Amino acid sequence: MTDTDHRDSYPPSPAFAAAANADASLYQRAETDRDAFWAEQAAALHWHEPWTRVLDWSAAPVARWFVDGKLNVTYNCVDRHVLDGHGDQVAIHWEGEPGDSRAITYRELLAEVSRAANYFTELGLVAGDRVAIYMPMVPEAIVAILACARLGLTHSVVFAGFSPSALRQRVDDASARLVITTDGQWRRGKPAPLKEAVDEALSANGSTPHSVEHVLVVRRVGIEVAWTEGRDVWWHETVAEASDQHEAQPFDAEHPLFILYTSGTTGKPKGILHTSGGYLTQAAYTHHNVFDHQAGQDVYWCTADIGWVTGHSYIVYGPLANRATQVVYEGTPNYPDEHRHWQIIEKYGVSIYYTAPTLVRTFMKWGREIPDAHDLSSVRVLGSVGEPINPEAWRWYRDVIGAGTAPIVDTWWQTETGTIMISPLPGVTATKPGAAMTPLPGISAKVVDEEGNPVRLGETEANGYLVLDQPWPSMLRGIWGDPDRFRSTYWERYAEQGWYFAGDGAKLDTDGDLWVLGRVDDVMNVSGHRISTAEVESALVGHSGVAEAAVVGASDATTGQGIVAFVILTAETTDTGNALVEELKAEVARAISPIARPREIHVVPELPKTRSGKIMRRLLRDVAEGNELGDTSTLVDPTVFEAIKAGKS
Ligand code: WTA
């Protein structure tokens, strides 16, 4: 990237700017009085009881926002819209992969959520209990999430692409009493089992008891499923039969809303904890301003899966709190063919489209004639999330999908931040291809060096670490069951200053605009999914033929990063060929998820280590990328690279 890149900038059209939800005064208002600013945002929600204080930071790093305030998150996302006379507005245009579809109004959503809440209560679940949701993109997944929130049950959504062992680990960590799943899911026209994975997860670990009392199963694909009497129940025989009347009770603003597991730098995923009032405030505020969402007019589509935080904040909570009409699509973008997304945009008149750079690059590969064959004139705002978007993909996205006019909001945030933190405002910011630009009004971030000094703005760009130096309403409140890890992971690096360390590198250009460069820790980003090198390494050494493994992320033209593994085999292993490599790839996919399947596995005789025995990943990255090797002077045995390169070719 050169210094001239940032001169290429795209201001909104005067017409867009004039009609937009947010104007530049939002920055000033937030600057003048942050607490008053956030109080104003929170006031857009319905509170059963008002808060007495906006922020209590005295027990930092665990914040309390909207102290003593009471609200019901689901009431805010559903009931109040019906009470306000919008019961007939479509909340969800659901599009099934095989081509079936359902339009669900806010009134219908309220009835469904009430039924589910009544049945969960009948099962004996009480506020504070944990519920695991392991489901594909079916409407019942959203209903289940909202029913949990309505009752103060803390949900833990586990991506339906995760393996039984990953599910079990998460169920155990949170002691979930209920698991909600489907019989199966559609995968490119074929039904694939899913409940089977729950059965396997719960029977794993031999006789080790688990916390699950019931498994609630939605029939989606109609395949045969094994049944455990007394434990398993069908949704259509229980929830569907329950009363559709249910009164939402208020919960404390700090009541735990959900846990969502994300990869860290060790093999054990972290259960990121989010609470209610501050989270919903920032989800609704960002969805309203970053996407310029106009209730009752826009048709919004976020292509994420509910298994990730983007699905939580920008399919469920943000849009529904703002009375969006949104598209939810069950399947893959190329089933039955590569036209699917553009057909959906045409069919529903999608005006706001939020996706990931990896998908934009895939669309580029498929060719612009595919979207060009469709009327995409309804699109007026485009969003990007999950990884840095390269300028080439950014320009293609704007030109081909946005007709050369739609503003792109490149939104930086994390599972931990809960909602968007750094992003353009589409009616205000002159955007630059590849830059997340500036922190949103009410949010504060810095780019600093190792010691915490702000990188100097000057004639040249400056690189550093991204930190958040002020608390924000949707910040994580901890790691489930592990307060020490919460402190050490995020708050130790800049303990003196009391800053949150995001784990990302960033640069400031000479205008002071921010470009996120990617992770600086041992976390890879594959198609926008966070995967830890340690998790993949532990899956590899779980195979009897592998003695040692080292995993790095290498640049990949489509997925951002690809997983490259170097393995040392055990002495007994005689098969060193392709069959073994394929078996190892399959083993990782099985142990974690197909998304963690390594792109390459190289069998090597040795791994580069420092004298203290630490694997030098930086050097392996150089090998994987085909770069000149950096400094090898700290290696015990610098000649190991000759052997590794031989193994790689
Ligand atoms: C990366 C996804 C650059 C970043 C919402 C972050 C991004 C990690 C962007 C969080 C962006 C996300 N530009 N990088 N616009 N958005 N990232 O928890 O490395 O799945 O730390 O949350 O994705 O991933 P997570």
From TrEMBL:
UniProt-annotated binding residues for Mg(2+): V541, H543, V546
Function in brief: Catalyzes the conversion of acetate into acetyl-CoA (AcCoA), an essential intermediate at the junction of anabolic and catabolic pathways. AcsA undergoes a two-step reaction. In the first half reaction, AcsA combines acetate with ATP to form acetyl-adenylate (AcAMP) intermediate. In the second half reaction, it can then transfer the acetyl group from AcAMP to the sulfhydryl group of CoA, forming the product AcCoA.
Residues binding ATP: G386, E387, P388, D410, T411, W412, W413, Q414, T415, D504, R519, R530
Residues of the Acetyl-coenzyme A synthetase N-terminal domain: 25-77
Similarity-based family: Belongs to the ATP-dependent AMP-binding enzyme family.
Protein name, UniProt field: Acetyl-coenzyme A synthetase
Organism: Nocardia callitridis
UniProt-annotated binding residues for CoA: R187, R188, G189, K190, T310, N334, S527
Record-listed N6-acetyllysine modification sites: K614
Protein's UniProt keywords contain Nucleotide-binding: yes
Major enzyme class: ligase
Pfam families for the chain: ACAS_N, AMP-binding, AMP-binding_C
UniProt-recorded Gene Ontology molecular function terms: ligase activity
Top-level taxonomic group: Bacteria
Cofactor(s) for this UniProt protein: Mg(2+)
CDD domains, A to Z: ACS
Enzyme Commission no: 6.2.1.1
HAMAP family linked: Ac_CoA_synth
Catalysis: reaction(s): acetate + ATP + CoA = acetyl-CoA + AMP + diphosphate
Key words of the record: Acetylation, ATP-binding, Ligase, Magnesium, Metal-binding, Nucleotide-binding
Post-translational modification: Acetylated. Deacetylation by the SIR2-homolog deacetylase activates the enzyme.
Matches recorded under InterPro entries: Ac_CoA_lig, ACAS_N, AMP-bd_C, AMP-bd_C_sf, AMP-binding_CS, AMP-dep_synth/lig_dom, ANL_N_sf
Occurrences of domain AMP-binding enzyme C-terminal (ranges): 535-614
Domain AMP-dependent synthetase/ligase: 83-480
